[in-house]
Amino acid sequence: xxxxxxxxxxxxxxxxxxxxxxxxxxxxxxxxxxxxxxxxxxxxxxxxxxxxxxxxxxxxxxxxxxxxxxxxxxxxxxxxxxxxxxxxxxxxxxxxxxxxxxxxxxxxxxxxxxxxxxxxxxxxxxxxxxxxxxxxxxxxxxxxxxxxxxxxxxxxxxxxxxxxxxxxxxxxxxxxxxxxxxxxxxxxxx
Length: 190
Fold this sequence. Notes:
Blueprint: H1 13-34, E1 50-54, H2 61-72, E2 76-77, E3 86-102, E4 108-123, E5 128-142, H3 148-175
């Protein structure tokens, strides 16, 4: 028998199955990237070069938006409206807490936490690029009287989590906006 000729049976089965696994993973990776799939937070550019964020004072949503846009996109955050190509206006951002269920004794068992934010996008002339949109996020907070301090901390953590989710959704929505074309010159020169 010729020892220099290698056949498929010479390789152990574990090497053949790992090769198939590697090829399958590569094929799945290629299919996901071909369809435009991106991991969350992988937005590289917005349709404008500079952005001004106008947010209500006393709420951290403005600084969170500035930080997230600056860190995850190529768009530059500017300090004045005059420098901006677009203005993201945060119209309203609020936290709500509603009673979701009561025990037989009339004590609260669950709260529903709601984070609501309204935004719109304007150009430097005040013309709407994107109309007012509202994002509403909810979470359920089970409640026990014996754990009041822990539940207060959990409530604040859930509000921060919802705000972070809202910031990601706003950036994602901004990335899908098509920049309006410059108005055509209607005066014909002859």
